[in-house]
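Good morning,

Attaching, inline, the backbone tokens for the sequence recovery test we're adding to the shared suite. The designed sequence is right after.
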């Protein structure tokens, strides 16, 4: 499969998994009434409505702030999709696809609910990680994939003379 269709497929799968888990937990499992749901000694499902961006930064309580974040997510998704269309490898396209799918998934939440629905809480003793969702995980894995592509795979693709292409 060529890079662009692969990246679009990854974006679609990320988006569908994100929205399916959110809709299932909100409206089928009724997590808001059943929380916390303990999955393991270090993991639980809880309900957190994030009105900001990653790690709760830049909290937006106004309608304007909400729609600015939706617009920024969509602009970033378009820009990353253009990059994906130019990607020379499935790895790069797939990494971008995870970010695009996650950004659109969180934008849908902001448009529909006014905030992003986060629900996975990882912790150990007094240590607690941020609460996140499938879209957030897709964005993080996508960024890790971009770093791997740029730091490792790009060097392997460089010509034998040592010049970068």
């Amino acid at each position: 499969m060529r890079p662009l269709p692969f990246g679009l497929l990854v974006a679609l799968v990320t988006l569908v998994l994100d929205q399916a888990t959110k809709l299932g937990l909100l409206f089928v499992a009724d997590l808001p009434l059943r929380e916390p749901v303990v999955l393991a000694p270090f993991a639980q499902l809880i309900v957190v409505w994030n009105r900001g961006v990653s790690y709760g930064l830049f909290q937006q309580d106004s309608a304007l702030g909400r729609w600015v974040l939706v617009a920024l997510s969509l602009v970033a998704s378009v820009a990353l999709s253009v990059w994906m269309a130019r990607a020379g490898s499935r790895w790069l396209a797939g990494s971008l696809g995870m970010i695009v799918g996650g950004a659109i998934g969180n934008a849908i939440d902001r448009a529909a609910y006014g905030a992003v629905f986060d629900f996975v809480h990882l912790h150990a003793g007094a240590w607690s990680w941020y609460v996140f969702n499938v879209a957030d995980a897709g964005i993080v894995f996508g960024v890790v994939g971009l770093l791997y592509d740029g730091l490792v795979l790009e060097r392997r693709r460089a010509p034998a003379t040592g010049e970068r292409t």
